[in-house]
């Protein structure tokens, strides 16, 4: 049990950080060539960081709740990286979710053949797409995507670009789920100690930058387009993550935030 004095100090720290503006700065991993040894090591670090944050569990739980009547047929993972986070999500949803088609969209083509094979063992069909996410969404030619997901991706964008991304996503899907860094004192402090678990310099730098660019409160809900009827959920998830869910409602005229 947390003593009252410590609880008050923690709450004050969190509130103080929440009032800070988002600070977006370049992350080193985005600027390194995909085959750079430091980038390869950092992506391996990110798998551990995602596991510590529990992001696969958060996205899987939100997806299961959103599709209680049956699994989606098509999923798009924006900023999918090497695809291993979505693979963890798929494993959590298997065996109820089968015959799912997932598109892994990222600016770098780094999804391995082994990762694709592991998706196939779960009866998921995977397509890796190398593209700028905003450009790809703007020229998407299919009629509809059941679910668009993003993990540790939205925080890279300033509000103007993020609003554009959300507008495009809302045009193509009835459900959008994102798991992002939470801009809070606990996450800020934890991000400075990742070297203790062996993370390299790139990961340690980017983790601090990610928290500064992260989200809290209803910041993502405020950017979601208001055209149509949407149910919006935005909340803290675990110690360090921030979860946003937008689901289109039928027969409703206003968003429920």
Strand order of the largest sheet: 3-2-1-4-5-7-6
Annotated CATH homologous superfamily of the domain at 47-183 and 216-248: Vaccinia Virus protein VP39
> Runs with pLDDT <50, length 5+?
1-19, 251-257
CATH topology-level name of the domain at 47-183 and 216-248: Rossmann fold
- Name the helix and strand elements from N-terminus to C-terminus, one letter apiece: HHHHEHEHEHEHEHHHEE
The CATH architecture of the domain at 47-183 and 216-248: 3-Layer(aba) Sandwich
Characterize the overall form.
globular
Determine Rg (CA atoms, Å). Answer: 18 Å
* Major β-sheet annotation: 7 strands, mixed
Helical content (DSSP H or I, runs of 4+): 40-55%
| Terminal Cα span | 32 Å
CATH class of the domain at 47-183 and 216-248: Alpha Beta
Q: What's the average pLDDT?
A: 89
Determine the structural class based on helices, strands and strand pairing.
alpha/beta
> Which oligomeric form is depicted?
single chain
Q: Keywords, please?
A:
Rossmann fold; disordered C terminus; seven-stranded mixed β-sheet; globular; alpha/beta; 11 helices
Protein described:
The chain has 257 residues and is of the alpha/beta class. It has helices spanning 4-18, 28-31, 37-53, 55-66, 84-93, 113-121, 133-138, 159-172, 185-191, 201-212, 219-223; strands at residues 74-78, 100-106, 124-130, 147-151, 175-181, 230-237, 241-248. It has a seven-stranded mixed beta sheet with strand order 3-2-1-4-5-7-6. Helix 5 (84-93) links the parallel strand 1 and strand 2. 40% of the residues are buried. Residues 1-19 and 251-257 have low confidence and may be disordered.
